[in-house]
Amino acid sequence: SLLHRGPDATLRLILRKPSHERTQEELELVFEELLHIPALSHLSTSIKRELASIIVFESHAQAGTVLFNQGDEGRSWYILQKGSVDVVIHGKGTVATLKEGDDFGKLALINDAPRAATIVLKENNCHLLRVDKEHFNRILRDVEANTLRLQEHGKDVLILERVVKQRGLTAFKYTVMSGTPSKMLEHLLDTRLNVLQVGPNDDPFLDDFLLTHIVFMPIAQLVDELASHYHNDSEIRNGAESPEDYEYLLTCKKRVVLFIQRWVMAVRHAVFEDPAAAHFIEEIATDVESDHGLQEEAGIIHQVLTQMSRYLEDRQQNMGQKWKLPPNGQPIGLFSGNVTATRTVIRPDDDIIFRVHCADHTFCTLRFPIYTTAEVIKICAADKLQLNRGPEDLALVEVKSNGERTIFKDNDLSIPTALTLNGRMFVSPRDHLDALTPLPEQEGATEGLEMDIETLATKDLAYHMTLFDWDLFWAVHEYELLYHTFGRHHFNKITSNLDVFIRRFNEIQYWVVTEIISTSNLNKRVSLLKNCKEYQNLNAFFAIVMGMSNSAVSRLTQTWDKLPSKFRKLFTEFEALIDPSRNHRAYRMSVGKLQPPVIPFMPLLLKDMTFAHEGNKTSIDGLVNFEKMHMMASTMRAVRFCRSRHLVLDPPSPKNNESQIRSYISCFRAIDCQRTLNTMSKKIEPR
Ligand code: CMP
Question: Which residue's alpha carbon is at the smallest distance from atom 11 of ligand 1?
């Protein structure tokens, strides 16, 4: 048959003829042969008939012949009929040897990308069947197999899958399902950097990769690999610097520069914060600027450098900010005063002042950088509190206002900001955890201004709350969602900005409950709610609705009855919106229609992340499960979308007691101990 012995002389003769010279009889003969080729077995009979008229026979006498080079434009798809070929990649050498029956050269055709490898004949007298690009596109492109696997040294390194045809999808027919980190990066550099703007329906592989690589490829490794792609030497071309070689090497450099540009666009200062990345960018910049072939790229990298030095300067100026957790646990002073948006970002080396208690409720006050690990805090607190135990015998614990205890892992960090609303940090011998009880003050309210909110206009309150929450939301980096989901200790990174934002949610929620059962002014609360929704501050909106649904409030039937029915109806509508059934369908539907700026309901986003994380393995058979990364990135993109336009609100006029309102809303008094709340509720309405 065609496959095993190579086509006989007759067949070869036919396959060398141009299609229009092949007779019906000859086509039939070719068709019969095509039926036996495994590489075509997934194709229908009618497609094989079409192929019979255009498939071409090609033979090469000499081993060592280069069929095509990595980086070349893809012109044909090949099936190896007799002999063998090496697949060679710059910087890696021969990664695979293909044998009789194997096919190659599809990748460049389906992705409209340059050749991903050089193909070198390994034996004399190789026989190939060839389908040229125009025919491939016409006949095969839309019926290609669903998955495409690339191997190196006998192991899968990249698995691509057909993208279900979507309207408006432009460039990519295949997306990455899984792969090794390096191969995915290589594929990305090869195929995804030609277009700067990707449409909403396009394959977001590049963006997904940029948002999530820290999960499977730490920055240090990424930078190393980028460096070797940048300094790609032409060892497989025998060191001969032909003009094509020069072109190819330039292309490699351009891709790395474009990658850097897109990287900074995607995760901003997270790139600059990493010393290895910052150093790498500077190094590349010097090289790019000295290369005449890279003038356009010099402009790009210059922009990146400017951005970086501006960021680092600003960072230098705000070094070592000091945050406080005063006696009552509330990060007061955290955001008081005239803080600018950049200054509200909590950084790993900022100091934080906090208390650590022990079982007898004595405490010590500590000051540490936020990145300090639980172990260090534990040892230091034990020393100050004179607990004479070795570190292994001790635990750092949060005791919540309801008495619940959580033990911190030794390598955990950003502990003080991770405490719940009225939680306290304790250090205790591991065998005495049962002795830890909440401090009496934890049953009361967190520290905050007391104010008669009846004197305040709800419009003013909602306005200032929204501005304030926006700043907190703005400070949260998308990466913090990953750290939070996978565990910050895995990354050795803090999640303080996210912690504070989530804490704010609880603060508002319990402030609402606390205020209502202290004053029972429900009218005011409902109209505040309406304003938050109008400002698209969904985080606060949810918090308020949830506060009003708290059992301590919902049982106040007399109060509810006194409300105008208009308000009650409104509240019922709002409650429907936060209904969690069918995976928060009502909320998702209405949020889907909103345009930025939006302050999203963060707990739901985190739930989505956790759900994706727990339901999907990060690696499958040694390859990164990129489908999971895609899910993660989608949620991170949602956060990005919410703040893709900056918040500008018309201030309510006239400006009433602005500074007073600002300090009031920046730190609400809130009781988060449900037992206390229930008791108070029963006091105002006994039955
Ligand atoms: P293409 O990029 O068109 O040209 C080189 C071909 O080598 C590529 O398509 C694949 O079909 C084939 N190939 C086989 N193994 C690999 C690999 N590990 N990496 C890249 N290409 C490979």
Answer: 104
